[in-house]
Amino acid sequence: MILGLTGGMGCGKTTAAKMFAGRGFALLDSDAVVRTVLQTDREVVDAVRGRFGTGVFTASGEVDRQGVARRVFQNEADLRWLEDLLHPRVFEHWRRAFAAEPERSWVVEVPLLFEKSLQNWFDFTICVASDPSVQLARLEQRGLPSSLARQRISKQLPLTQKIKLVDFVLLNDGSSGFLRAQVEELVNSLSLR
């Protein structure tokens, strides 16, 4: 079984994904794969340098992810270019992981699951949802200014639409125990299918 886990920024996707992993699901974090590819794939690093110049690199020559993020979230064409560069490599990573352990149950954290029409990869899709005020407060606690958080959230499909498209919704406005109870109930329900 392969689950696609999505939700808005600051809604708790990573927390929920770890809870699924605690129940035996193998976890794939798409953002972590992107980070690895952005730092280690020479073709990607060279393409980023060619597109954006040395201004998005650290003094030690590594890609400055925050610098790239500032650039692409202000320019739609740059964002599309970067996604077109990275996403095929992310999907190849998924393919290799699934093929290496086909008997495993997987949970894949995918922020842009519906934005990129990826739902066919998964047996079931799940959205972790929070009230927008809770979502913004969490992002600000992480050090992301409100204006930047709103800008990044605006690049994603509205949470209300994601909720309509998924198979299951996990509400994450309460305690971690409340979220864990929902994950437990869902895992138990899925094991009966």
Commentary on this structure:
This protein has 193 residues and is of the alpha/beta class. It folds into 2 domains: 1-25 and 105-193, P-loop containing nucleotide triphosphate hydrolases (Rossmann fold, 3-Layer(aba) Sandwich); 40-104, no CATH class. The protein has 9 helices and 5 strands. It has helices at 13-22, 30-40, 42-52, 65-73, 76-100, 132-141, 146-154, 159-165, 176-191, and strands at residues 2-7, 26-29, 106-109, 124-129, 168-171. It has a 5-stranded parallel beta sheet, sandwiched between helices. Helix 1 crosses helix 9 and helix 2 packs across helix 5 (76-100). The model has no long low-confidence stretch (mean pLDDT 90).
Name a few traits of the molecule.
193 residues, alpha/beta, Rossmann fold, 2 domains, 5-stranded parallel sheet, 9 helices, 56% helix, globular
CATH class of the largest domain: Alpha Beta
Indicate the proportion of strand residues. 5-15%
Give unreliable regions as ranges: none
Major sheet: arrangement of strands: 2-3-1-4-5
Shape: globular
CATH level-3 fold name of the largest domain: Rossmann fold
CATH superfamily of the largest domain: P-loop containing nucleotide triphosphate hydrolases
Structural class: alpha/beta
Distance between the termini: 10 Å
Number of strands: 5
Average pLDDT score: 90
